[in-house]
């Protein structure tokens, strides 16, 4: 149990006294029977400091170092105090004129406590408000050392990182599994300063110029009159914008694909999107695109799962990430770069590298691994770390520079600006999670929330009063020096280059690269989203856009909407598919996969025990699902029950195994057997919630197994025992082996109608 809580409970008990009035616990005024002083019996040590929370090199007014010690000050000592460090004897009652009398204005503790509470919320991020973060480490292979002088990319360098994943559209409290782009922002605390890679799980963007960002966000956010729908793109204003503004077509298509509903944050790719410029030690430059490749593979939910989870467990992704890290199944991504020569036209094989709606297929420019990211520590305080972390694409280090992508240019302005509103002033780099691990010696001073006490009298250059310090460094001493790139002579215009005008060939490549089942999902997503729109004109316009991607896609969605399919208005692009874009057809590790083992008190308990152990031994997670909580059966080795028929839902499991007879559980209200409400001709049928578990898992293409009589539960759920991915056998562990093999492909793809 939590020592903090125990101490707090004990202290409260002591203060309350046994039958004594509240005043009897006041220190110094003991009642006759109460102990004289409230002594917490198990004071806790200060929380351990985090390496990433060391502060700028400054001193406090008392000459004590701040920063590291300041972080410790956040919670220290055994006694409850006010914000000024004065100990409190009671924080549960306002100061009153007698127990039933009016509250006194002079209650300064009440005033301070409520004042702070009133200001606990800060503005949520205008986009990417819903997020989850984790600490980790980046280990560099050194394979990029020939193209960049960035110290953290040299061979075998370890750099602490903080990563924040997010959805884009929803508010802070919105559901995790909505159809949306996911943010993938990484803060590298390098020895040369902070480098932020502020990317997404989709390699292209809606717009080519940052000046359109307010438009796309206003269109995608809830309607301004009723503020609905929350965290959805399935509404008129979104589709109005993306069908009028066809440069959004490529990103929208990715959103409508399985990429828009990741299975887990641990199974998402990440992309830097823009083309960046790497600079080597001799000043040579290379254009690159950054990639994060998850070791567990790229996996998604199916749409029905995503919708169910939105209600059943809105924190699904956040919980999954934190649980995995806590269990030691630390997620890993390989960092990679696609490299391109830094030519004057900044194109590669005809693809404009400055257009952020373009990818370069991996078949044309392979992703070369340059390091490994491991997330191994959960934040200890969500607000302090995940909420207050502030990313900025302009946080660059020597060896990594920007290009003239017009989307990136606007971002360089926007991210600093937004932190001033969100974090209340310009000193947000001093917030612990934002502090660089390299020494900071800047000449910015003062401002709201200044927490450094700077030394010296001359925060300006040149100066003589501080001995001319600090000095500027040259490139040879680790300074960030902009790559001396030639800017073409030109006339000021508000225009995009003609090469930005092709809005359909890249989406067509994506569509052609999808497997049949992925195409079916895309058709389903467009049909759903456009079906939620009210305006006929928007649906018709959307179909005209789809016709320019592919007639088959357009016709299928048109059928679903009950509208005629229009003809393309541009010639269909002749592009080769990029197989790397498909998520289907690979085999992946099964680490961390969740196996639901369903059984009842009369089930195959030996089988449950054996399967549980094998699942654990192979790095997966067993969850025993049974009619009631507690243990399954009796005896010291009776398996513990993690989910009951009332609390389990299929969406949590990657595969299900029924070991023997599942039995009947208590209904959701705990009042009676679930069977009691069933018609008598269902007597002998398993619990209907087991049927729902199995039927959903079957519909969602999950591997399902049954052993020792569990087959009858499958049959009762209408699942054919000879269907693809359904394994029936006598030994539970033999069935498990087959299920594990199937899990390597993530789902039983053969079960989806389109591939039958
Ligand atoms: Fe942005 C947040 C990713 C274009 C303006 N953005 C934000 C976050 C991510 C991205 C992952 C959340 C960071 C966090 O976890 O704190 N944004 C992108 C990508 C873009 C992009 C990959 C295009 C390639 N963004 C973009 C543009 C603008 C912004 C063009 C403005 C002109 N983005 C912001 C912002 C946010 C933000 C308003 C909100 C909170 C924050 O910055 O710190 O400034």
Description:
With 756 residues, this protein is an alpha/beta fold. Among the domains are: 131-229 and 262-273 and 293-334 and 370-434, Beta Barrel (Catalase HpII,  Chain A, domain 1); 511-581, Hemocyanin, N-terminal domain (Up-down Bundle); 594-755, 3-Layer(aba) Sandwich (Rossmann fold). Helix content is 26%, strand content 14%. It has 18 helices and 18 strands. The strands form three sheets. Strands 1, 2, 3, 4, 5, 6, 7, 8, 11 and 12 form a ten-stranded antiparallel sheet that branches. It starts with a helix and ends in a 13-residue tail after the last helix. The chain binds CIS-heme D hydroxychlorin gamma-spirolactone. CIS-heme D hydroxychlorin gamma-spirolactone binds at residues 125-128, 131, 164, 166, 183, 185, 198-200, 205, 210, 213, 273, 356, 389-391, 407, 410-411, 414-415, 418. CIS-heme D hydroxychlorin gamma-spirolactone is lined by residues 125-128, 131, 164, 166, 183, 185, 198-200, 205, 210, 213, 273, 356, 389-391, 407, 410-411, 414-415, 418. Residues 29-38 have a biased composition (Pro residues). It catalyses: 2 H2O2 = O2 + 2 H2O.
CATH topology of the domain at 131-229 and 262-273 and 293-334 and 370-434: Catalase HpII,  Chain A, domain 1
| Approximate helicity band | 25-40%
| List of distinct ligands in this structure | CIS-heme D hydroxychlorin gamma-spirolactone
Number of helices: 18
Strand tally, please?
Answer: 18
Low-confidence stretches: 1-32, 34-72
- CATH architectural grouping of the domain at 131-229 and 262-273 and 293-334 and 370-434: Beta Barrel
Rg from alpha-carbon coordinates: 30 Å
- Helix-and-strand structural type: alpha/beta
| CATH evolutionary superfamily of the domain at 131-229 and 262-273 and 293-334 and 370-434 | Catalase core domain
Query: How far apart are the termini?
Result: 53 Å
How would you sum up the major sheet? 10 strands, antiparallel
CATH class of the domain at 131-229 and 262-273 and 293-334 and 370-434: Mainly Beta
The whole-number mean of residue pLDDT values reads 90
Enzyme class: oxidoreductase
Biased composition (Basic and acidic residues): 6-16
Family: Belongs to the catalase family. HPII subfamily.
Cofactor: heme
């Amino acid at each position: 149990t939590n020592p903090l809580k125990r101490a707090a409970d004990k202290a409260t008990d002591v203060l309350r006294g046994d039958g004594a009035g509240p005043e009897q616990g006041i220190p110094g005024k003991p009642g006759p029977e109460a102990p004289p002083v409230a002594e917490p019996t198990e004071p806790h040590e200060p929380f351990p400091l985090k390496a990433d929370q060391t502060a700028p090199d400054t001193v406090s007014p008392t000459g004590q170092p701040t920063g590291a010690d300041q972080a410790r000050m956040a919670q220290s000592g055994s006694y409850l105090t006010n914000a000024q460090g004065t100990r409190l004897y009671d924080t549960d009652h306002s100061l009153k004129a007698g127990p039933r009398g009016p509250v006194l204005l002079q209650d300064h503790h009440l005033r301070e406590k409520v004042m702070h509470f009133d200001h606990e919320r800060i503005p949520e991020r205008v986009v990417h408000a819903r997020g989850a973060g984790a600490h980790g480490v980046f280990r560099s292979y050194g394979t990029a050392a020939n193209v960049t002088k960035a110290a953290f990319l040299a061979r075998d360098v370890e750099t602490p990182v903080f990563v924040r994943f997010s959805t884009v559209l929803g508010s802070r409290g919105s559901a995790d599994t909505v159809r949306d782009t996911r943010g993938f922002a990484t803060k590298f605390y390098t020895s040369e300063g902070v480098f932020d890679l502020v990317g997404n799980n989709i390699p292209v963007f809606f717009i080519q110029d940052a000046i359109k960002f307010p438009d796309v966000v206003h269109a995608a956010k809830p309607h301004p009159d009723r503020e609905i729908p929350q965290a959805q793109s399935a509404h008129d204003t979104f589709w109005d914008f993306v069908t009028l503004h066809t440069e959004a077509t490529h990103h929208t298509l990715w959103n409508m694909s399985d990429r828009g509903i990741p299975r887990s944050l641990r199974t998402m790719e990440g992309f830097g999107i823009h083309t960046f410029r790497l600079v080597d030690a001799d000043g040579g430059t290379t254009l690159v695109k950054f990639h994060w490749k998850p070791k567990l593979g790229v996996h998604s939910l199916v749409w029905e799962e995503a919708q169910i989870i939105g209600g059943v467990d809105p924190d699904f992704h956040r919980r999954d990430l934190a649980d995995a890290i806590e269990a030691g199944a630390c997620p890993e991504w390989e960092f990679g770069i696609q490299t391109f020569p830094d030519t004057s036209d900044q194109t590669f094989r005809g693809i404009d590298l400055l257009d952020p709606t373009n990818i370069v297929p991996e078949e044309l420019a392979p992703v070369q691994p340059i390091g490994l990211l491991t997330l191994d520590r959960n934040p200890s305080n969500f607000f302090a770390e995940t909420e207050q972390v502030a990313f900025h694409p302009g946080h660059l280090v020597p060896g990594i520079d920007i290009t003239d992508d017009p989307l990136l240019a606007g971002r360089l302005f926007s991210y600093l600006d937004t932190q001033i509103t969100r974090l209340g002033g310009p000193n947000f780099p001093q917030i612990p999670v934002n502090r660089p691990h390299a020494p900071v010696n800047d000449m910015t001073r003062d401002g709201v929330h200044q927490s450094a006490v700077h030394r010296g009298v001359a925060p300006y250059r040149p100066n003589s009063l501080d001995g001319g310090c600090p000095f500027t460094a040259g490139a040879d001493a680790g300074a960030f020096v902009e790559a001396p790139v030639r800017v073409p002579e030109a006339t000021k215009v508000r225009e995009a280059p003609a090469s930005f005008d092709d809005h359909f060939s890249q989406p067509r490549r994506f569509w052609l690269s999808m497997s049949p089942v992925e195409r079916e999902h895309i058709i389903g997503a467009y049909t759903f989203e456009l079906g939620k729109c009210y305006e006929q004109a928007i649906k018709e316009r959307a179909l005209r856009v789809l016709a320019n991607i592919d007639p088959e896609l357009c016709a299928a969605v048109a059928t679903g909407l009950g509208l005629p399919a229009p003809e393309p208005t541009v010639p269909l692009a002749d592009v080769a598919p990029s197989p790397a874009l498909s998520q289907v057809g690979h085999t992946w590790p099964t680490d961390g996969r969740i196996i639901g083992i369903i059984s009842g008190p009369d089930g195959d308990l030996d089988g449950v025990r054996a399967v549980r152990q094998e699942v654990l031994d192979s790095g997966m997670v067993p969850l025993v699902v049974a009619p009631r909580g507690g243990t399954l059966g009796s005896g010291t080795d009776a398996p513990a029950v993690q989910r009951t028929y009332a609390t389990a839902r299929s969406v949590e499991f990657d595969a299900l195994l029924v070991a023997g007879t599942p039995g009947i559980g208590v209904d959701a209200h705990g009042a009676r057997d679930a069977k009691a409400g069933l018609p008598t001709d269902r007597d002998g049928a398993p619990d209907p919630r087991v049927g729902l578990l199995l039927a959903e898992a079957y519909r969602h293409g999950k591997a399902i197994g049954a052993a020792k009589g569990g087959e009858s539960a499958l049959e009762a759920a209408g699942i054919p025992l000879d269907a693809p991915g359904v394994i029936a056998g006598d030994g539970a562990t033999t069935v498990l082996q087959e299920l594990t093999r199937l899990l390597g492909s993530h789902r039983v793809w053969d079960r989806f109608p389109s591939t039958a």
